[in-house]
Write a structure and sequence with these properties.
Rossmann fold, alpha/beta, 3 domains
């Protein structure tokens, strides 16, 4: 406690990275806490369902579970206002999971009274959750806590379903050093609470029972103060973190293209070739394309086949999300089956069972949060967000939980979660909420790997590397490319990988560099062909990974061509093209013969009417016009 309070490098929870009272200990299975209230509940549910899955498969690599384990998750009554708390109750009850929720209710969320947050106490509000056993107790009564708490734990441990303890507790101090509860609580209320201080109450109870005298109690308190003082002195003398280590544990394994494998961080690093066991992965494309066997398959089918191969090889992989299953088990033998709205997960449930491919509630935070919990237990969960346009409810889980867990725990915990997301427009009718791009928002988050392939072979190689990465990966699959024949490829060899963070030159050239990704790769290639007819030699680079992106490849190209055009489908203002442009301007300035240009979507939303959509999203003629002007400058 004291080591964390002073930010010591010896703090076992975070090495000085987290503020006080954010405890964690990997040896004791205590996940390092985050600050957002309520966000811990969904990962707790994921931990519990992973425990059940692992216990039934005791030979899973790197996974351990006990048949009678429970998952304990605590929160304050203020956090019960968060939707993620209710989502976690929903899944814990529906799946009959061994989760014990403990709500410590001191009546205030900083200064907001419980009565201002909810129409009734949480123990009353949860009565409709079937299978949830609710226990109410006075948190200042030690004997009651021991008796009722043990009973609640025993019930959950026996497999009778989740439980919730609603404990009335005191708040002896203000919320923080910046808060003074005397500003919003009157003297009478504070005095009454002081009388219920659990330490005072316990002392009074034990003295009344003759366990010890007042003098002995004074001696115990004096000894406790001395022990705390000694601990504080030792903590103040403990070592401080080395500032040079601040980017350690942002990602597990990162290198510069082809360099030695080493754990590091930093936005310029390139994640590469690490498998879940720390081994080196198989062949990579480098700048070329492997020779696959068989007929070309479109991207959607290539991803489906890859998921099938990966699941067959690794029982730790579970696929889940909205509509990803084929059908309910009762009718599975009598219907064709769904397998995702784009058919990408078709047949996975039939092949591997409902424990490994299953539907979830229509709640994106639930999908991702439970995936995080499973990843913390050593599984390799693959969550699907049906459309990028609906990813936003999961932002808290992605940003505050998945991306930070390795860094905030100083490398003690990791989150090997793959989140597949259908993204993008050019659908002629997708409109606002089926056509969005916005990869830049996630590229801004340290600790997340962001991938967007433009063709089938890269989708295969990147997806395999995503499962090897050991860190959370957002795997963006462009809907427009799912079934385009120009993006089809034969399936590559089973050991084929595309290193995360490595781009590819898809068309060499000497006069101008175009950097792009996703659906605009093909449009850039068509533009390059048109420009070649005019005498301009255009090099087209597909980044493939947005974060971390391949600085070296882009720099090498710009140093040769002296001109750069960045093309992307997201809106122009603050799109990822701005980051590429800024970096190149900073690091390749003297090689540039002209300012960096960008072609991107208009700063608005994607419209339903095809003509409007075409006007909003970047087209081949837009790229040709910008490149021609840039080549002449």
């Amino acid at each position: 406690i004291m080591l964390q309070a002073v930010g010591s490098a010896d703090d076992p929870a975070s090495g000085g990275r987290q503020m006080p009272c954010h405890f964690g200990d990997v040896a004791k299975n205590i996940v390092t806490q985050s600050s957002p209230t309520g966000s811990q509940c969904l990962p707790a549910v994921g931990c519990a369902e992973a425990g059940r899955y692992i216990a039934r498969r005791p030979t899973l690599l790197g996974c351990e579970a006990h048949g009678d384990e429970i998952t304990y998750v605590s929160l304050g009554e203020g956090a019960t206002s968060e939707g993620e708390f209710w989502e976690s109750l929903n899944s814990a009850c529906r799946l009959h999971l061994p989760v014990l929720f403990v709500v410590a209710d001191n009546g205030y969320a900083i200064s907001v009274r419980a009565a201002d947050q909810a129409p009734a106490p949480v123990s009353e509000l949860v009565q409709g959750f079937r299978g949830l056993a609710v226990t109410k107790m006075n948190g200042w009564d030690y004997a009651q806590c021991r008796t009722k708490g043990a009973r609640a734990v025993a019930r959950v441990r026996a497999g009778e379903g989740p439980g919730l303890i609603h404990a009335q507790v005191t708040r002896p101090y203000s919320h923080s050093s910046a808060d003074s509860q005397a500003k919003y609580r009157d003297a009478a209320e504070l005095a009454a609470e002081a009388r219920h201080d659990p330490i005072v109450v316990l002392r009074r109870t034990l003295q009344a029972a003759g366990i010890f005298s007042a003098e002995q109690a004074d001696e115990i308190e004096a000894e406790a103060r001395q022990e705390a003082a000694r601990a504080a002195e030792e903590a103040l003398a403990a070592s401080r973190p080395d500032p040079a280590t601040v980017t350690d544990h942002v990602l597990r394994v990162t290198t510069r293209r082809g360099a030695e494998v080493a754990e590091a961080g930093g936005a310029g690093a390139v994640a590469e070739k690490a498998t879940g066991d720390g081994a080196v992965a198989g062949k990579s494309t480098g700048g070329g394309v492997p020779e696959g066997a068989g007929e070309p398959v479109v991207m959607a089918e290539a991803i489906r086949l890859t998921l099938h191969q990966l699941m067959a090889a690794d029982e730790r992989i579970r696929v889940f999300g909205e509509d990803v299953a084929d059908a309910d088990e009762e009718v599975l033998d009598h219907v064709e089956g769904k397998g995702g709205v784009f058919g990408v997960t078709r047949g996975l449930q039939r092949a591997f069972g409902s424990a490994r491919c299953f539907n979830t509630p229509l709640a994106e935070s639930n999908i991702v949060g439970r995936g995080i919990g499973q990843a913390l237990r050593g599984l390799r969960p693959c969550a699907e967000i049906q459309f990028f346009d609906y990813i936003w409810p999961s932002m808290q889980q992605l940003r505050s939980e998945a991306a930070t867990i390795r860094w905030r725990s100083n490398g003690a915990f990791s989150c090997p979660l793959v989140v597949r997301v259908a993204i993008g427009g050019y659908l002629t009718g997708g409109a606002i909420w089926h056509s969005q791009s916005g990869e830049v928002i996630f590229a801004h988050i340290p600790g997340l790997i962001v991938v967007m392939p433009s063709r089938a072979v890269d989708a295969v190689g990147l997806l395999r590397s995503a499962f090897d990465a050991g860190d959370p990966v957002l795997f963006f699959e462009h809907k427009h490319l799912y079934r385009q024949r120009y993006a089809a490829d034969p399936m590559p060899p089973d050991d084929f990988r595309v290193p995360l963070g490595q781009g590819r030159v898809v068309r060499p050239g000497d006069d101008l560099t175009v950097v792009t990704w996703g659906a605009t790769v093909q449009k850039s290639l068509l533009a390059a062909e048109a420009l070649a007819a005019e005498g301009s030699s255009v090099e087209v680079i597909d980044l493939r990974t947005i974060s971390p992106w391949d600085h070296d490849l882009v720099c090498e190209s710009v140093n040769r061509t002296s001109r750069l055009l960045v093309v992307h489908e997201d809106t122009l203002t603050a799109g990822f093209g701005a980051e590429v442009s800024a970096w190149v301007t900073e690091h390749c300035f003297w090689a540039l013969d002209a300012p960096v240009r960008r072609v991107a979507a208009t700063d608005t939303f994607v419209a339903y009417e095809p003509g409007l959509e075409q006007a909003i999203l970047p087209q081949v003629e837009d790229i040709v016009a910008a490149a021609s002007e840039l080549a002449r400058s």
